[in-house]
Every structure is written in C-alpha cells, then in structure tokens.
Amino acid sequence: MSFFISEAHAQSAGAGAPPGGELFQIGFLVLMFALFYFIAIRPQRKRQKEHAAMVAALSKGDEVVTTSGILGKVTKLDDDYVVVSVTDNVELKFQRSSIHAVLPKGTLKAI
C-alpha cells in the first residue's frame, strides 16, 4: 500500500522553527493591512465624502445625472428626496443618494 501513499516521517527533535519567525509574521500582517488601507479603504472613504458633499450642495436648477443614467434638472428638494424634471411634463422623484453627478449649466440643451 505504500506504493500509492508516501509514508510520513516525524521531524527530528533538534530542528525547530527559526528564532524570530513570529515577529516576522506579525510584521508582515501589519504591512499587508497598511497596504490594503492605502489602496482600498482610504480612496473609498474619500469618494464617499466627496459624494456626500455634492449631494448636500444640491440646489434647485442644478442639472444632474442619476445612477441609472437619467439626465434632468432639479425642481424640488426635500431632506431625503429630490424631484428631477426630465421633460416639460415629466417629473421623477429620487433619493438624494441616487444622484451620481452634477453637470455644468447648459449641458442638457447641448445634448
């Protein structure tokens, strides 16, 4: 049966782990967390703050794009909702967080 499964041999008692290996592992984990923080967490928080500032600064008459790609002009604002006029007689109500970007004035006429 040893043809298919190699036999396991115990490690000799004299050969142990090299000294300082635990410190290296802890340092490596700290370095990986720091790298992950600067690559993923910090830029995401920056984007969240910028989006929150943009949504808080919305005003009547702003031309916006929603996350679903709908273009329109802000006609009414509530605490949590915004009403966007898409055409003359069509107004849609969205949550403020669904506003993706504020466009420069005159963009809707140019499109």
From TrEMBL:
Keywords: Cell membrane, Membrane, Protein transport, Translocation, Transmembrane, Transmembrane helix, Transport
A GO CC annotation given for this chain: plasma membrane
Protein name: Sec translocon accessory complex subunit YajC
InterPro entries recorded: Preprotein_translocase_YajC
Organism: Zhongshania marina
GO BP annotations, alphabetical order: protein transport
Cell compartment(s), UniProt: Cell membrane
Topology in the lipid bilayer: Single-pass membrane protein
Keyword Signal in record: no
Residue stretches spanning the membrane: 23-41
